[in-house]
Amino acid sequence: MPVATPATVRKQIAQGRPEPVYLLVGDDEAEKSQLAAEVAGVVDEDLRPFNLERLYANDKGITPSAIVQSARTLPMLGDRRVIVVLRAERILKPRRRGKAAEAEGEGPADEAEPPTDLDLLEEYVKRPEPLTTLVLVAADVDRQRKLFKALQKHAVIVECLGLQGGGDLRDVARTADALVKQAVSGAGQQIEPAASRLVAERAGTDIGRLRGDIERLLLYAAGQPKITLRDAQEVVSSETAQDDWAVTNAIARGDAKEALRQIALALEADGVPYKILGQLAWFVREKLTAADPRRVPAAVEALFRTDLDLKSSGGDPRILLERLVVDLCRR
Hints:
The chain is an alpha/beta fold. It has helices at about 5-15, 30-40, 50, 65-70, 90, 100-105, 120-125, 145-155, 170-185, 195-205, 205-220, 230-235, 240-255, 255-270, 275-290, 295-310, 315-330, and strands at about 20-25, 50-55, 80-85, 130-140, 155-160, 190, 225.
């Protein structure tokens, strides 16, 4: 099958006719997550406990045969079952063992062996269960493997390449600028052209950074009728990026003491609470989801609670952010 666009998949969903197998691949995590969620939305909300399953391929026990077994299970009460497999690059682009892997920078020699039951998943792709939609979400795939060739022939592949597939640098910049304006407009705000260009230019070809900067910018300028160039300069400056790493690295290590110290330094330097909240939201979305997905639901809940408390003056902003940092450091 030819490579499809997100719009094509959304049209299939709107018509109530999703394909049996989808592969969402690329570095645009936000686009992949949104599209996977929309596919999952074909299952009636009341039946999702029975007919919707999310699997993480990097979890122990989630093998190709386990995925096939889940996909072969018939829906209960409803007419469709959806299986979403996240971090599927572990299966679709497994690391090799031994000195060759180390030489190529793929990791230490004691990495887990590639799955040995890939042929079962390959056979499923060729003859899928018609009442199930299987969604494989991966950062990358090994395009030389038989499994990918089967996906090419029998599945719908959507390349969510973010800014990587944008052509030359001018095309990339135009695409990034359009994404900034689209996101700001979707949030019900306006942005000065110079501010939009600055955010796009600072992101380069990094779609993760672009989306993170947009989110921080919207939080920073919440309540303003228009986002200005000065607002953009405050959010995407090199100093802000350095602060991002200091706080989020401490949280990633579970070092609450250091994270609290960095939060205090940021606030004492006239840091804006909404900007800091945006940085922490970026950490949860871009880093924690990959590093420890089990912590994500509690982290998202803590983020929403802090956002609501800040907007409703539910406490001292410093105390609210410190409480959030402690929650994010919990393992």
